Amino acid sequence: MIVSLVMSAQFATFLLASLILAITPGPGVIYVLTRTLSQGRGAGLASVCGIALGNLANAAVASLGLAFVIAASATAFAAVKFLGAAYLVFLGLQALRARPAEEPDDAPRSLSPGRLFRAAFLVALLNPKTALFFAALLPQFIHPSAAPLAQTFFLGSVFVVIALCTDTIYVFAAAALATSIRRRSKWRPYGRYVSAATFMGLGVYAALASPRMGK
Fold first, then answer.
1. Which residues, including other chains, have CB under 8 Å from residue 98's CB and lie 6 or more apart?
2. Half-sphere exposure of 153 toward its Cβ, with a 13 Å CA cutoff?
3. How far apart are CA 177 and CA 171, in angstroms?
4. Residue 215 in domain
5. In the chain, what are the helix, strand and coil shares in percent, each to the nearest 5?
6. Do the beta carbons of residue 201 and residue 30 sit within 8 Å?
7. Residue 205: CB atoms within 10 Å
8. What is residue 190's DSSP assignment?
9. Phi-psi region of 156 (alpha: psi -120 to 50; beta: other; left: phi over 0)
10. Residues 144, 147, 148: CA angle, nearest 5 degrees
């Protein structure tokens, strides 16, 4: 089933959506940039790894929960899909209304790579919005009739890998352009529009596609 999922047009849509969401500046990106600018490239990379593991844990939790719902009832699964679509639209509206994030006035204190990893892991793991995001996004791209746990965990892992790669690129870019990035960039206010459009587009796509998916 995973092979057929990878070959489907839905998977291509998932990859594109994941890439856009991963490169759009958010709390995780701001966190790794802050660590990189304050302590260097090594600190940023340690933070990226911690965030990736925390996100993977959230993906696993969301996968288990979705698999249970799918096994329990087709009606419940359909309800989860539409609730997920509504939540994605809500995230888009929230991103549209949000003010651009401000850089902290004081740089975070220096930490060892191990402590940086643990701190970033907890930041990602204890963020309830991450699990909710996975629970909202993943059902839109799976076939409930075949191995839902394997599909959801696979898709969640793919998203985590994409985010790991883009976050790493951010770290190297921040380390190379530290002086320029410390200044307020002109493009930052527009990041929320990209994020809002992506979330809302996913929500509309999910709502329109739900009646046909899984057949």
1. 192
2. 10
3. 10
4. no
5. 80, 0, 20
6. no
7. 17
8. G
9. alpha
10. 50
Locate 114 and state its tokens.
């191990």
E strand or H helix that includes residue 18: helix 9-23
164-185: b (≥16 Cβ within 10 Å) or e? bebbbebbeebbeeeeebeeee
Domain hosting 179: range is 2-102+111-209
Single-letter code of the amino acid located at 32: V
Does 214 map to a domain?
Answer: no
Interval 29-87: pLDDT, tens: 877 887 888 788 999 999 999 999 998 998 888 888 776 766 666 676 667 667 767 77
pTM equals 0.69
Question: Is 184 part of any domain?
Answer: yes
Question: How many distinct structural domains can be found in the chain?
Answer: 1
Residue 203: phi and psi, rounded to 5, are -65, -45
Q: What separation in angstroms does the CA of 84 have from each of 19, 45, 182? A: 19, 32, 37
Instruction: Read off the pLDDT of residues 174-197 as tens digits, 9 standing for 90 and up.
Output: 888 876 655 555 545 555 676 677
Q: Can you say whether residue 20 is alpha, beta or left, with left for phi > 0 and alpha for psi between -120 and 50 degrees? A: alpha
Q: Residue 174: inside a domain, yes or no?
A: yes
